[in-house]
User: What shape does this take?
Amino acid sequence: MSKLNSEILQRAVDRILTYASGEEIELEGNTVQGKKRNFRETVEAQFTLKNYDPVRDKRFSGTFKLPTVPRPGLKCCILGNAAHCEMAERIGVDHMSVEDLKKLNKNKKLVKKLAKKYDFFVASDNMIKQVPRLLGPGLTKAGKFPTLLGSSENMQDKIDEIKATIKFQMKKVMCLNVAVGNVEMTEKEIIVNTQLAANFLASLLKKQWQNIGQIYVKSTMGPAIQVYF
Assistant: This one.
């Protein structure tokens, strides 16, 4: 059961979208002039934890697939066998074969450049085992080790699934941020994504909602608006 107040969340999302469209909004008793940017702003939820000790308490990590893709612009590269490279070509996705990976010659700078160029990688099942041997630990260090694409899986569906998946991972800080939408989505889509993300985080915590202190939502360039107190 979500402890997020639907009305407060709806008002916040409405103001985020209004601000992002360049119109004025009321914020903490002041009128703030919005600004329309020349790129698609991401909407993210920021969570602050309480009654949680990142040193003593068990670290947690979990992934959850949102119903609407929050960041459709994420760049993917397929590390594929011949069939998958051909498929990637057909749907307009960048791809690399074993031969392409061999050309990088385990050069740390080139592997780092490759990891920086893409947001995530997907690899054919017969390629994934070869990635560490061909590239060294570069992709793993960047937190971008490829996701497996089975021979019978639909490539476009797999890419969309990864784009829609958010990850919560507790490190040493008490704040967690995840993308829950973008300013081109509808108000309802952002609200549903935010509620589901919050519920999922609560399910990972020892005392569930009692471990969540505050939640803010904001667009990339917009003000943060508190939705959970």
Observations:
- The radius of gyration is 20 Å.
- Residues 76 and 120 are 5 Å apart (CA to CA).
- The chain has a mean pLDDT of 91.
- The first strand starts at residue 24 and ends at 27.
